[in-house]
UniProtKB/TrEMBL annotation:
GO terms for molecular function: DNA binding; DNA-binding transcription factor activity. CDD domains: WHTH_GntR. It comes from the Bacteria. InterPro entries: GntR_C, TF_FadR/GntR_C, Tscrpt_reg_HTH_GntR, WH-like_DNA-bd_sf, WH_DNA-bd_sf. Coiled coil: none annotated. Keywords: DNA-binding, Transcription, Transcription regulation. The keyword Transcription applies. It holds the Pfam family GntR. This is Glc operon transcriptional activator. Residues 10-78 form the HTH gntR-type domain.
């Protein structure tokens, strides 16, 4: 009898931990986000407060969540890799930017294709919100940092609609690096009117293809967008190098 009494709470705690892990994996609870109150969690999960606390204890032991005294429990940064060395390479070796854009092209193209196939109406509402926020900022004096975050949030919303947790967490683990590529795009292209108009058209094409459930068009729109950005940045770099060489010749350095 005693063994059965001990076993049941342990099984319920395992179930609680598993259900919260699924919420994290599915992106319902995001890294760094505070968990709802104990009362809210017990209501949503339909378990006792004792079972909930035992489940949270398991998650703390697995380092899935962490608790701060007086502040509550938070989802750990489980998907965030140590990007320090990569960020150093990115900053010191500009060629890394083009490698990263290649990765973005591959991952975001597949994200868009899957989003068009698997996305729910709720997903499309979120994508529209991020798209509308991005469009609303286009005609304003919004700073480049805000532009970059809005751009990144739009692409991330599409990725989340793919309903592939591994793909979502892979992209989230590269957030710092991906934002770096978006900053490069915003800083170098947004003040150039032809390039800016082209990026706006590409975002619209991607939005329409995903929400219109046109999978192949969505895949192509995402790939074409990132590939176009990569080519534009390369063209600017070559133009600047030609200007430097011409200036050096003019000044008699060669």
């Amino acid at each position: 009898m005693y063994a059965e009494t001990e076993e049941k709470p342990r099984q319920v705690a395992d179930e609680v931990a598993e259900r919260i892990e699924r919420l994290i994996l599915d992106g319902v609870l995001k890294a760094g986000q505070a968990l709802p109150s104990e009362r809210r969690l017990t209501e949503k999960l339909g378990v006792s407060r004792t079972a909930l606390r035992e489940g949270l204890k398991l998650l703390r032991a697995r380092e899935i969540i962490h608790t701060s005294q007086g502040k509550g429990s938070f989802v750990a940064q489980i998907s965030k890799v140590d990007a320090g060395p990569l960020m150093h390479l990115f900053n010191s070796q500009p060629r890394t930017l083009y490698d990263l854009l290649e990765v973005r092209s591959l991952l975001e193209a597949e994200s868009a294709r899957l989003a068009a196939i698997r996305g729910t109406e709720a997903d499309f509402i979120m994508i529209r919100r991020r798209y509308d926020e991005m469009v609303a900022a286009q005609g304003s004096a919004t700073d480049t940092t805000t532009h970059a975050h809005l751009d990144h949030a739009f692409h991330l919303a599409i990725c989340e609609a793919s309903h592939n947790p591994v793909l979502v967490h892979t992209l989230q683990s590269l957030t710092d690096l991906l934002l770096g590529s978006v900053f490069a795009c915003v800083n170098n292209l947004y003040h150039r009117e032809p390039e800016k108009r082209q990026i706006d058209r590409q975002h619209t094409r991607l939005f329409n293809a995903v929400t219109g459930r046109q999978a192949e068009l969505a895949r192509k729109a995402a790939a074409d967008h990132v590939d176009s950005v990569r080519q534009s940045l390369s063209d600017i770099e070559q133009e600047e190098q030609r200007l430097v060489r011409a200036t050096l010749r003019l000044e008699g350095w060669t």
